[in-house]
Write a structure and sequence with these properties.
Elements lengths: L1 H14 L12 H11 L4 H14 L3 H6 L2 H8 L5 H17 L8 H5 L6 H10 L10 H10 L9 H14 L5 H15 L17 H4 L17 E11 L3 E6 L10 E2 L2 E2 L2 H7 L14 E3 L3 E4 L4 E12 L9 E4 H4 L6 H17 L1
Parallel strand pairs: 1-7
Antiparallel strand pairs: 1-4, 2-3, 2-8, 5-7, 6-7
Helix pairs in contact: 1-11, 2-3, 2-8, 5-6, 8-11, 9-10, 9-11
Bound molecules: iron/sulfur cluster (SF4).
């Protein structure tokens, strides 16, 4: 497998990209911002955004101390704003939990909002010279073809296979160049359509090419698979065994029905809980996560992560909604998954009481 990295690195030395703004002065902060911007966005689009961002927020501290509005204003036009929000949140976490020093171990990096295994691998290999593989969309395509991997790369088992192949191919030195090289290969030669196998440095070992099946890889997503969206639901109870419900806006999914406060993620849910409203003195705030479950709509699955919070004194002042007696709540107009949760709550309370 050393042949793969050797050939790739020799090609990179001559043909790879060496003058991208984030390749200069490679600090974890600079590499991190570039990796987040490059998710779902082309290099050429990212460059001016990256430069403006770095001028306004040249250091991690500057980013952490900026207000969210100004961070998002720098993101306007790039799309996928959760990336910008997470970047800002993560910078604040680093300031608070790591004294402003970007963490240098995998576990701490991957625990930051918006950083998955591949982004963590890119930061560690490019900026910190550690041996970690990456598996972004480009690399998935290259490896699916190189090893003729059958199956959709979004599938857990296929993804696991690609991760172990990525790990195996990573050389024992030049981690930064190797990561950049394999990304460049995917972006410039092993492209989605019309890959340039004639110029490819690893063509000699490519299984898809040898089998004449390059166009088949990577396998596309099976047609019937619906997208999965995530939501965190909050079951907030006060001391009178009343449940906080909010009316869903109409039109929209579940428009006009009573529902539980809903957030995009557990982090958003926690952030929305104003610390001053938490719970009574004698019982400290306790947020209990229930088992996740899935509700399917015609166009997507909603992966629901319910959370229970007891003995709340008051809901945050800005929240729209009202308290309802728990034992009568199931009779209200509730969406099916919410009804299921309310019934489960009643059952659980009945057992405890
Ligand atoms: S030979 Fe073609 S399909 Fe195989 S890795 Fe190279 S560019 Fe991709």
């Amino acid at each position: 497998m050393q042949n793969f990295s050797k050939a790739l690195l020799s090609w990179f030395d001559v043909h790879g990209r060496h003058d991208l703004p984030w390749q200069q002065d490679k600090t974890p902060y600079r590499v991190w911002v570039s990796e987040i911007m490059l998710q779902q966005t082309q290099v050429q689009t990212v460059i001016p955004y990256y430069e403006r961002f770095m001028t306004s927020f040249p250091t991690l501290q500057a980013l952490a101390e900026a207000d969210q509005e100004s961070v998002l204003a720098h993101w306007a036009g790039l799309g996928y704003y959760a990336r910008g929000r997470n970047l800002h949140k993560a910078a604040q976490t680093i300031l608070q939990q790591h004294q402003g020093e970007f963490p240098s171990d995998f576990e701490a990096i991957v625990a930051l909002p918006g950083i998955g295994r591949s982004t963590a691998g890119a930061i560690l290999s490019i900026a910190l010279q550690q041996r970690y593989p990456i598996l972004d969309g480009n690399v998935k395509r290259v490896l699916s073809r190189y090893f003729a991997v059958e199956g959709w790369p979004g599938e857990k088992t296929v993804e696991a296979q690609l991760w172990s192949q990525a790990q195996m191919l990573t050389p024992l030195a030049r981690f930064d160049d190797y990561t950049q090289a394999i990304m460049d290969l995917g972006a410039t030669l092993c492209t989605r359509s019309k890959p340039r196998c004639d110029a490819c440095p690893v063509a000699h070992g490519c299984a898809a090419l040898a089998q004449g099946r390059v166009a088949e890889f990577p396998f596309s997503k099976p047609k019937k698979t619906l997208p999965v969206r995530r939501a965190s639901f909050l079951m907030m109870l006060n001391q009178q065994r009343q449940l906080w419900l909010t009316r869903r806006p109409s039109p929209g999914i579940w428009g006009g029905l009573w529902s539980l406060p809903q957030f995009e993620s557990r982090e958003d849910l926690i952030a929305a809980l104003n610390p001053s409203m938490q719970t009574t003195e004698d019982s400290p705030a306790s947020l209990v996560k229930w088992e996740e479950f899935r509700h399917t709509f015609s166009h997507y699955h909603l992966q629901i992560e319910p959370h229970r919070l007891d003995r709340v004194q008051e809901a945050p002042a800005e929240w729209q909604g009202q308290w309802h007696d728990l034992d009568k709540a199931a009779q209200l107009g509730l969406p099916a998954p919410v009804k299921k949760l309310v019934e489960q709550l009643e059952k659980e309370d009945g057992q405890n009481g």
